[in-house]
Amino acid sequence: MLYFTSIGSPLRDLRLVASDEGLVAILWPDDDFRRVPLQAMREKPAHPTLVETARQLGSYFAGQLTRFEVPLDFRGTDFQKSVWRALLAIPFGETRSYAEIARVIGRPTALRAVGAANGRNPISIIAPRHRVFGSTGALTGFAGGLEAKEYLLRLEQRIEAA
């Protein structure tokens, strides 16, 4: 069974989804179930993982948190999970290219597959998809939109500079 709650953020409202094992997804208002396929959910704002995730996201947006510590329950293929785990290893305030992620997971020629896995990352912000750029250094797609990606990068730069 999956549980959800919605929270406000400086960007837009976010839907947090958790299982009994951990956080399953952070969904944007325009997310659909093709990008992040999920089973039926029940609203449960008091679920411990949802409460803690909301607290940590609030601290992050307030510029007081640089490392998330919530249990994660990634749901995807083994390849996708390897990409998402590589995202978790990107240090706060730093960025990586798709090529660098592909090398980290031992699949240096799998750039398109890495890009596709990034696009399906269900736990954006915490698994920092916003820290990944195209090979030219250009901003690339982000489930929350490029404005949200720019906001998150600027937020992290301000926190690092403080």
Protein described:
With 162 residues, this protein is of the alpha/beta class. It folds into two domains: 2-61, Methylated DNA-protein cysteine methyltransferase domain (Double Stranded RNA Binding Domain); 78-161, Arc Repressor Mutant, subunit A, CATH 1.10.10. Helix content is 35%, strand content 14%. It has helices at 48-61, 78-88, 98-104, 111-119, 146-161; strands at residues 2-7, 14-18, 23-27, 41-43, 96-97, 132-133. A four-stranded mixed β-sheet has the order 3-2-1-4, with helices on one face. Strands 5-6 form a two-stranded parallel ribbon. Strand 2 and strand 3 (23-27) form a beta hairpin. Helix 3 (98-104) crosses helix 4. The longest helix is centred in the C-terminal third of the chain and has 16 residues, at 146-161. The protein is globular, with a radius of gyration of 15 Å. The mean pLDDT is 92.
Question: Distance between the terminal alpha carbons, to the nearest Å?
Answer: 41 Å
Which parts are unreliable, with pLDDT below 50 for 5 consecutive residues or more?
none
Strand tally: 6
- Classify the fold: give the CATH topology of the largest domain: Arc Repressor Mutant, subunit A
Task: Assign the CATH architecture of the largest domain.
Answer: Orthogonal Bundle
Indicate the percent of residues in helices. Answer: 25-40%
Name of the level-1 CATH class of the largest domain:
Mainly Alpha
Overall tally of domains: 2
Strand count, sense and closure of the main sheet? Answer: 4 strands, mixed
Q: How many helical stretches?
A: 5
Order of helices and strands: EEEEHHEHHEH
The neighbouring-strand order within the major sheet is: 3-2-1-4
Structural class, by secondary structure, is: alpha/beta
Full CATH superfamily name of the largest domain: Winged helix-like DNA-binding domain superfamily/Winged helix DNA-binding domain
Radius of gyration: 15 Å
Mean pLDDT: 92
